[in-house]
Amino acid sequence: MAAPHRLEECALVLNAGSSSLKFSVYRREARAWALEAGGQIEGIGTSPHLKVKDARGAVLADATPAAARDAGGALDALAEWLGSHYAGAGVLGVGHRVVHGGARFARPIVVDGEALKELAALVPLAPLHQPYNLAAIEAVAKRLPHTPQVACFDTGFHRSLPEVAQLVPLPRAIRGEAMRRYGFHGLSYEYVASVLPEKAPEIAPGKVIVAHLGSGASLCALKAGKSVECTLSFTALDGLCMGTRPGAMDPGVILYLFQSLGMSAKEVEALLYKQSGLLGISGISNDMRALLGRDEPAARLAVEYFVYRAAKEIGALAAALGGVDALVFTAGIGENSAEIRRRIGLASAWLGVELDDAANERHGPRISSAKSRVSVWVIPTNEELMIARHMAALLGWD
Fold first, then answer.
1. Are residues 214 and 355 in the same domain?
2. Considering only Cβ atoms within 10 Å of each terminal Cβ, which end of the chain, N or C, has fewer?
3. Catalytic residue numbers?
4. Are residues 76 and 221 in the same domain?
5. CA within 13 Å, CB half, 267
6. Are both 219 and 117 inside the same structural domain?
7. CA-CA distance, 3 to 19, in Å (whole number)?
8. 3 by DSSP, 3-state: which?
9. Is residue 56 situated within a structural domain?
10. Residues 14 and 146 placed together within one structural domain of the fold
11. Residues 110-145: pLDDT tens digits?
């Protein structure tokens, strides 16, 4: 066995899902935090698999931790690996992605028992993510009771939306303070906005549409780096077609499911969060990579609908911005699928979008042609680093 590495102070960032635990380990470097290692434990509760890579991409661990039967077991497996790989590592703090912050939590917070209760009340608004985000916080608290934990919210970045964009058009007595369009994927958009002055300074102060395209997908309209509109709203069901979520559709469809098909609330929730979108249309897969390689008409239709919805919403956000200077692709599909970017680019040609095919195949960073009136970019997101930055600022590590 290789000798343990020295890592005296580190920050741990966790992104917990229903069957996976993504994590990043950051070390202090001057006045910033640098990635030391990152990875995930997949198949929690069934066939757990741990894989860790260092900042250069070298594999540090590839194992099957039998103890990862639940969130707590996964954390135990991660702690065991950290202890074996790093000698005397001190975890200064643990940062978490928490999908929904509700009306109260607009900024990152140090989590306490009262905050945890309030966040648990938001589970019905984000059932795919919130329960697992909070379970990870509780599991860490049991194992590291004196280590501060910071919750960073995907809704926080969008609190800059103007009042009209936050409005849910129902009677005031029903919507109250809590029912509003929150927007999500905020940590991703915040990171992209933070690096635009360095990576694409010519567009940073302008009107930019960012396309976060992955299993969860949305668009955000930035004006001078601030969110002014987002396709996701009260919950993470709105807007674009996603891997298993439908995106925007007529609310009357939901009434029909209840009134005419006699479905229960739980059945409708499962349908909307787990059985729709690319999976529902294709009947094959929720993975865009799998669908692009298939010839079945339903697979082609699912891809076409994904592109159609994205292009339609790009047009809507251009209207909300009063014009558009640039389009930025990010997240799993946005960063890696030249074909989806090509199709969305063609559908957005009326806006002045024209891609450079060779640059698009190279994945950028700039993928628009010299003649394109709207510049187009591929900028990888980094939600984990954004969380580490927030944690450092909140805990006074800067």
1. yes
2. N
3. 154
4. no
5. 7
6. no
7. 31
8. coil
9. yes
10. yes
11. 999 999 999 999 999 999 899 989 999 998 898 889
